Amino acid sequence: MNVASEYLQLQREDADQLVRRHAPLVRRIAYHLMGRLPPSVDVGDLVQAGMIGLLEAARNFTTDRAASFETYAGIRIRGAMLDELRRTDWTPRSVHRKVREVAEVVRQIENETGADADSAEVMKRLGITAEEYHQVLADATSARLLSLTAPDDGDGGEGNALDVADNDSLGPQDSIEQDGLREALAEAISTLPKREQLVMSLYYEQELNLKEIGLVLGVTESRVCQIHGQALIRLRARMGDWRDG
């Protein structure tokens, strides 16, 4: 066996060890994502996609990267799962359309009043009941509607602006735009009502699921779902200027 072959063999062995050691990370990320998805999504499909992402991460990881392997792999795993969800989009177009409608009304009210849009006023302008409004909030949480910058082309396709991008795969212009998105998103989150900011922090930074957040806040899981959905809709409304730009 020559030197090159020995090196490749060692690389394969190292990659295999990384995959075995970090396999539990795949299931953890999959079940975290399931917290925002409906029962119709099969967690096994997410795990399978995530394992492919982990394998690719193990093959492509180099020790000169700034991030640790777990951080790098987490991005790849989550990205592979989201790609799988995009490929098999289960969200009806009517759901995307209704959330856009509510976000637009929220945007109008907040532009007019300079204050957080009141749920009662939103329902009044839309002519919907509290039950219908809460369903939209639940849909905003469970559907892939986190893309606050994707164009509203009506096809129901949405990205995921709240997920961390792999900057190694971005070109210079893409990286600049991603940095601009992060800054705009962080600023928009800082303007949310305190309770909504807390839910966003616990969910996306601390990676608690809705049930765990409910225990922290002393409210039901369904109430957390409503607060989360309201935050996403409010962010979509407030990111409108960034999207239009």
UniProtKB/TrEMBL annotation:
<dbReference type="GO" id="GO:0005737">
    <property type="term" value="C:cytoplasm"/>
</dbReference>
<dbReference type="InterPro" id="IPR000943">
    <property type="entry name" value="RNA_pol_sigma70"/>
</dbReference>
<feature type="short sequence motif" description="Interaction with polymerase core subunit RpoC">
    <location>
        <begin position="45"/>
        <end position="48"/>
    </location>
</feature>
<dbReference type="InterPro" id="IPR014284">
    <property type="entry name" value="RNA_pol_sigma-70_dom"/>
</dbReference>
<dbReference type="InterPro" id="IPR007630">
    <property type="entry name" value="RNA_pol_sigma70_r4"/>
</dbReference>
<keyword id="KW-0804">Transcription</keyword>
<dbReference type="GO" id="GO:0003899">
    <property type="term" value="F:DNA-directed RNA polymerase activity"/>
</dbReference>
<comment type="similarity">
    <text>Belongs to the sigma-70 factor family. FliA subfamily.</text>
</comment>
<keyword id="KW-0238">DNA-binding</keyword>
<feature type="domain" description="RNA polymerase sigma-70">
    <location>
        <begin position="209"/>
        <end position="235"/>
    </location>
</feature>
<dbReference type="GO" id="GO:0006352">
    <property type="term" value="P:DNA-templated transcription initiation"/>
</dbReference>
<dbReference type="InterPro" id="IPR007624">
    <property type="entry name" value="RNA_pol_sigma70_r3"/>
</dbReference>
<feature type="domain" description="RNA polymerase sigma-70">
    <location>
        <begin position="45"/>
        <end position="58"/>
    </location>
</feature>
<protein>
    <recommendedName>
        <fullName>RNA polymerase sigma factor FliA</fullName>
    </recommendedName>
</protein>
<dbReference type="GO" id="GO:0003677">
    <property type="term" value="F:DNA binding"/>
</dbReference>
<dbReference type="InterPro" id="IPR013324">
    <property type="entry name" value="RNA_pol_sigma_r3/r4-like"/>
</dbReference>
<dbReference type="Pfam" id="PF04545">
    <property type="entry name" value="Sigma70_r4"/>
</dbReference>
<dbReference type="InterPro" id="IPR028617">
    <property type="entry name" value="Sigma70_FliA"/>
</dbReference>
<keyword id="KW-0805">Transcription regulation</keyword>
<keyword id="KW-0731">Sigma factor</keyword>
<dbReference type="GO" id="GO:0016987">
    <property type="term" value="F:sigma factor activity"/>
</dbReference>
<keyword id="KW-0963">Cytoplasm</keyword>
<dbReference type="InterPro" id="IPR012845">
    <property type="entry name" value="RNA_pol_sigma_FliA_WhiG"/>
</dbReference>
<feature type="DNA-binding region" description="H-T-H motif">
    <location>
        <begin position="210"/>
        <end position="229"/>
    </location>
</feature>
<feature type="region of interest" description="Disordered">
    <location>
        <begin position="150"/>
        <end position="171"/>
    </location>
</feature>
<dbReference type="Pfam" id="PF04539">
    <property type="entry name" value="Sigma70_r3"/>
</dbReference>
<dbReference type="InterPro" id="IPR007627">
    <property type="entry name" value="RNA_pol_sigma70_r2"/>
</dbReference>
<dbReference type="InterPro" id="IPR013325">
    <property type="entry name" value="RNA_pol_sigma_r2"/>
</dbReference>
<feature type="region of interest" description="Sigma-70 factor domain-2">
    <location>
        <begin position="18"/>
        <end position="90"/>
    </location>
</feature>
<feature type="region of interest" description="Sigma-70 factor domain-4">
    <location>
        <begin position="188"/>
        <end position="236"/>
    </location>
</feature>
<comment type="function">
    <text>Sigma factors are initiation factors that promote the attachment of RNA polymerase to specific initiation sites and are then released. This sigma factor controls the expression of flagella-related genes.</text>
</comment>
<dbReference type="Pfam" id="PF04542">
    <property type="entry name" value="Sigma70_r2"/>
</dbReference>
